[in-house]
Amino acid sequence: EAGVVQSPRYKIIEKKQPVAFWCNPISGHNTLYWYLQNLGQGPELLIRYENEEAVDDSQLPKDRFSAERLKGVDSTLKIQPAELGDSAVYLCASSSRTGPSYEQYFGPGTRLTVT
Amino acid sequence: EDKVVQSPLSLVVHEGDTVTLNCSYEVTNFRSLLWYKQEKKAPTFLFMLTSSGIEKKSGRLSSILDKKELFSILNITATQTGDSAVYLCAPYGGATNKLIFGTGTLLAVQP
């Protein structure tokens, strides 16, 4: 079974430029998550999708961040314009069960450096 | 505010040692607690704990949850260099039902 796929793995951009990250979850997983992980910290949830619906985007900075999951499968996370403080690893995860407790499977992440 | 504290922050041991990693939490609407291992890439799932006092084991790793005292421990026996990683504790709950990650414990196992 293929795992969660993310691209690109690394991205270096100048501040004020736009950037987009792509994620393809494990086949059959209806729940998809985007996390941000700063160095030395645990992942922090940005947005959670149940199929096409964003059910929790309370931590997404909506002035510059946007996300979509149009067909309920793969997803794109965009930052426009990027700021120096956005440098971090962006992780995508998916899970197959909804409910109070479940396992999440993470992709390898995209390491973003904003210069 | 939900809080997760892991200790120690970092730990250096020799191969063959036994280590205990701690996780204390204050999380509203607590449902379960998950442990992840993170090497230089994605966190990989280790355990999910939902009931107090029931130990979960996988090879040399084991974990237990105490819902009364609000903590969990992860034990690794006979450590190997391949156990070197950051171990993340993540209670599931909070106002929006999500994983709330601690900052992790960095374990280094020396040969």
Please give a structural write-up:
- Chain A is globular, with a radius of gyration of 13 Å.
- The model of chain A has no long low-confidence stretch (mean pLDDT 92).
- In chain A, strands 2, 4, 5, 6, 9, 10 and 11 form a 7-stranded mixed sheet that branches.
- Chain A is mainly β.
- Helices cover 0% and strands 48% of the residues of chain A.
- By secondary structure, chain B is mainly beta.
- Helices cover 0% and strands 58% of the residues of chain B.
- In chain B, strands 2, 4, 5, 9, 10 and 11 form a 6-stranded mixed sheet that branches.
- In chain B, a hairpin with a 2-residue loop joins strand 6 and strand 7.
- Chain B is globular and about 45 Å long.
- The model of chain B has no long low-confidence stretch (mean pLDDT 94).
- Classes of the chains: A mainly beta (115), B mainly beta (111).
- The interface between A and B is medium-sized, with 21 and 23 residues.
Characterize this entry briefly.
The complex is a heterodimer of chains A (115) and B (111). Chain A is 0% helix and 48% strand. Chain A has 115 residues and is mainly β.
